[in-house]
Design brief:
By secondary structure, this protein is of the alpha/beta class. It folds into three domains: about 50 residues, Single alpha-helices involved in coiled-coils or other helix-helix interfaces (Up-down Bundle), CATH 1.20.5; about 210 residues, P-loop containing nucleotide triphosphate hydrolases (Rossmann fold), CATH 3.40.50; about 55 residues, Helix Hairpins. Helix content is about 55%, strand content about 10%. Bound molecules: guanosine-5'-diphosphate and magnesium ion. Magnesium ion binds next to helix 4.
Length: about 325
């Protein structure tokens, strides 16, 4: 499959051809306008085949065990007959510590599974933001028949927010750590999580894992609950021994069923799409501005003015925006 014909790619995609899927994602991630246009056409055509997956965000600080966890979880899920796609989002573009990338060993087993599609996070330099491209990738995976989509992210700053804005449920992985510093996990992240799992509950760490889970149960009383009717659950598990993994998966499935049946999922996905539109508009307009010579010249002047303190950021921004609008008239 070397075609860049949208019709052929779409056909391959819907038949579940992995190479077609990979190419479609590459098109969607491309900075070339002709590729993006092809991707748009494919996604439009694929839309009727999307929306059926369980979209799960998985976040946690580096070393917490995400890759190991996904490898084990993936085996469990495909064993149940599901097809799993694993995507990564890494807005920091820290390619070295990037999600999935460099995890060949821990996820190697999963990668060899024909029911699994793994895609590392796109490398830097993508206009329009990594997040919206990952969103496109989710839709493409769904169209290719993957009924479970994981979006993995390294828990650094904004990435949890980004991932929670494109998935149905967010799973926060924690490591057993004593004391009350709560591993520097920000309140906001606790509020975003649907389920929290303290991983590495094995061997000598079992008690500490339970203790950590309890500490977080207390901490959760201090944050706004994600769902008034069902408080955020905290469980312990071990990706190493497999303990608690099946229970956790069952919990996530039943929570997903619950939000689907209550109508919450439809509302959530609608809200996510609308928010994405605004982000896309901003990205598109900014990309157009960057390609405009007059804009770039004026911006360079204003950058100098800002450096020597002769203008303010807001005045400079207004002047640049005015230039773009005038340019259109
Ligand atoms: N004891 C124990 N170690 C684990 C577990 N899961 C992962 N690890 C180890 O933690 C380290 C980091 O795991 P990795 O999956 O790469 O974490 P990631 O950076 O979050 O993707 C590795 O040495 C794993 O073997 C677990 O459940 N129990
Ligand atoms: Mg990893």
């Amino acid at each position: 499959m070397s075609s860049t014909q949208p019709e052929e790619l779409l056909e391959g995609l819907i038949q579940g051809d992995r190479r077609a899927l990979a190419r479609c994602i590459t098109m969607a991630e491309s900075t070339r306008p002709d590729h993006r246009y092809i991707a748009e056409q494919i996604i439009e055509g694929a839309l009727p085949h999307t929306g059926r997956a369980l979209r799960l965000g998985i976040t946690g600080t580096p070393g917490v065990g995400k890759s190991t966890f996904i490898n084990v979880f993936g085996k469990l899920i495909t064993g149940d007959g599901h097809r799993l796609a694993v995507l990564a989002i890494d807005p920091s573009s820290a390619a070295v510590s990037g999600a999935i990338l460099g995890d060949k060993t821990r996820m190697g087993e999963l990668a060899a599974n024909p029911k699994v599609f793994i895609r590392p996070s796109p490398s830097g330099g993508i206009s329009g933001g990594v997040a919206s491209r990952t969103r496109d990738a989710i839709l493409l995976c769904e169209a290719a028949g993957y009924d479970i989509v994981f979006v993995e992210t390294v828990g650094v700053g904004q990435s949890e927010i980004a991932v929670s804005q494109m998935t149905d449920l967010l799973l926060l992985l924690l490591a057993p750590v004593g004391g009350d510093d709560l591993q520097g996990i920000k309140r906001g992240v606790l509020e975003l999580a649907d389920v929290i799992a303290v991983n590495k509950a094995d061997g000598e760490l079992i008690n500490l894992a339970e203790q950590t889970a309890n500490e977080y149960r207390h901490a959760l009383h201090l944050v706004r609950p994600k769902r008034a009717e069902s408080p955020t659950e905290i469980v312990t598990c071990s990706a190493l021994t497999g303990n608690g993994m099946a229970e956790l998966w069952a919990k996530l499935l039943s929570l997903h069923q619950h939000v689907a049946q209550s109508g919450e999922l439809t509302t959530l996905r609608g809200r996510q799409a609308v928010a994405q539109l605004d982000a896309e508009i901003q990205a598109l307009l900014f990309a157009q501005a960057n390609a405009n010579d007059a804009f770039n010249r004026h911006r360079a002047e204003l950058q100098d003015a800002l450096r020597n303190g002769s203008t303010s950021v807001s005045a400079a921004a207004r002047s640049l925006a005015a230039l773009l609008i005038a340019d259109r008239e």
